[in-house]
Amino acid sequence: QVQLVESGGGLVKPGGSLRLSCAASGFTFSDFYMSWIRQAPGKGLEWVSYISRSGIYTNYTDSVKGRFTISRDNAKKSLYLQMNSLRGEDTAVYYCARDHCSSDSCPNWFGPWGQGTLVTVSS
Amino acid sequence: SYELTQPPSVSVSPGQTARITCSGDALSKYYVFWYQQRPGQAPMLVISQDTERPSGIPERFSGSSSGTTVTLIISGVQAEDEADYYCQSADSGGTYAVFGGGTKLTVL
């Protein structure tokens, strides 16, 4: 079945860096856009970034532009999020999700989602 | 920045109907998607494109749309429906995804 498994979260100091990974299985990875969505502790969901099927097109929420970089390796069926210059407000569970964005409709819905990986930014 | 507005909480007794609203200036232009998130779990789609129920979602889940307000309707609420519910749509320019603040559904 379709499965997404995130990894790479952890505790990092403000200003530090972290690279998240998401391993996909059970579907043709290269056929789908992919997104990262985060949820701060006890808070709501916030879309962070998406990447197109080939990786050519990317987009970011304003608060992470210039600090985060999304990428993918279709041969490895993997999605990545490089996070630099981390701040306390970046503390959250980060979910990768299959993004149903298409030429006809974008943004679109997300699903399924991985189980998430916790990133804590604190000194 | 563009916002989708949801009530923070809704409470209903088992068997009653729960209605959770989502309001936004651009909702007459873009579809809304609804997600259920149980404690400790990832979100799961329960309603697509305002009113469409994905396969595997119980029939008691439905959606309606009127102008700039979209409503998630859960008929005959069961204890297992207790969860946080989020609406999602596009920003006013149709560029990126936006989520509502979430509504905690409590089954009394």
Note the quaternary state here. heterodimer
SSE-based structural type of chain A: mainly beta
Characterize the overall form of chain B.
globular
Radius of gyration of chain A: 14 Å
Count of helical regions of chain A: 0
Question: What would the average pLDDT of chain A be, to the nearest integer?
Answer: 96
pLDDT average of chain B, as an integer? 96
Describe what you observe in this structure.
By secondary structure, chain A is mainly beta. Helices cover 0% and strands 50% of the residues of chain A. In chain A, the strands form two sheets. In chain A, strands 2, 4, 5, 6, 9, 10 and 11 form a seven-stranded mixed beta sheet that branches. Chain A has a four-stranded antiparallel beta sheet with strand order 1-3-8-7, with no helix packed on it. The radius of gyration of chain A is 14 Å and the shape is globular. The N and C termini of chain A lie far apart (40 Å). By secondary structure, chain B is mostly beta strands. Helices cover 0% and strands 44% of the residues of chain B. In chain B, strands 1, 3, 4, 7, 8 and 9 form a six-stranded mixed beta sheet that branches. A three-stranded antiparallel beta sheet of chain B has the order 2-6-5, with no helix packed on it. In chain B, a hairpin with a 6-residue loop joins strand 3 and strand 4. The mean pLDDT of chain B is 96.
SSE topology sketch:
The complex is a heterodimer of chains A (123) and B (108).
Chain A: E1 3-7, E2 10-12, E3 18-25, E4 33-39, E5 45-51, E6 58-60, E7 68-73, E8 78-83, E9 92-99, E10 110-113, E11 117-121
Parallel strand pairs in A: 2-11
Antiparallel strand pairs in A: 1-3, 3-8, 4-5, 4-9, 5-6, 7-8, 9-10, 9-11
Chain B: E1 9-12, E2 18-23, E3 33-37, E4 44-47, E5 61-66, E6 69-74, E7 83-90, E8 97-99, E9 103-107
Parallel strand pairs in B: 1-9
Antiparallel strand pairs in B: 2-6, 3-4, 3-7, 5-6, 7-8, 7-9
